[in-house]
Amino acid sequence: MTASALESHAPMRTSGLPTHARRVLDATYAAGGYAAAACILLILLTTLVQIGARSAGITVLGLTSYAGYLMAASTFLGLAHALNAGSHIRIETIGKLLGKNRYWLDLVAFAIGSAVAVWFAWHSCNMVYLTYVLNDISSELDATPLWIPQATMAVGTVVFTIAMLDNVLNLLLTGHHRIQANSEAL
Q1: Which of 57, 125, 133, 154 is the most exposed place for a label (fewest CB within 10 A)?
Q2: Which long-range contacts (CB under 8 A, 24 or more apart) does 69-72 make?
Q3: By residue range, what is the domain housing residue 71?
Q4: Mean pLDDT to the nearest integer, 49-68
């Protein structure tokens, strides 16, 4: 970067990643959002089945556990989509006060966030691997191999890490992150 580019925070390029890579990443983030929404619908379905079964005097084992697995899956699979949609908590007031220096705040925040995301994704994937190797199963009545629901957390954290790094790269290349402004932000 030249000195004038650093002073004005003008982007070195007008676009970040190549078009094909951008489409793949955006489709991946959207797929995570749709998968999270599908998990929430499945939570509704399992709850309705459980209510109907109890009303009929039928006991269906494991539905509460599966609702819990789906809740965790919806949370982690939707992280990247929520980030780029501006749904994560951010402190906009401080950014507005910094004016031209906001670029540096965003860069530091994304760098720290990316480091934490990498750490979390690594440990999530490691946990799934160890759970699989140890053949750990749920202690509930469903006796589900725990690596299966844990895999959704690992996938979600890996995609979230990619989204964070994508925003860092975009910030470095264009001078702007890709998070859409949330109209409900304070």
Answers
A1: 57
A2: 69/144, 69/148, 69/149, 69/152, 70/39, 70/40, 70/42, 70/43, 70/46, 71/39, 71/43, 72/149, 72/152, 72/153
A3: 17-174
A4: 90
pLDDT at residue 98 in the model: 74
| 84 is a domain residue | yes
The domain tally of the chain equals 1
Task: Answer whether residue 8 is part of any domain.
Answer: no
In a domain, 180, yes or no: no
pLDDT at 177: 80
pTM: 0.81
- Residues 82/163, Cβ–Cβ less than 8 Å: no
> Is 7 inside a domain boundary?
no
pLDDT digits (tens, 9 = 90+) for 90-103: 666 666 777 777 88
User: Which of 4-8, 66-70, 148-152, 176-180 is least confident?
Assistant: 4-8
Question: In this structure, what token pair is assigned to residue 115?
Answer: 């480091």
Q: How many other C-beta atoms are found inside a 10 Å radius of the C-beta of residue 171?
A: 21
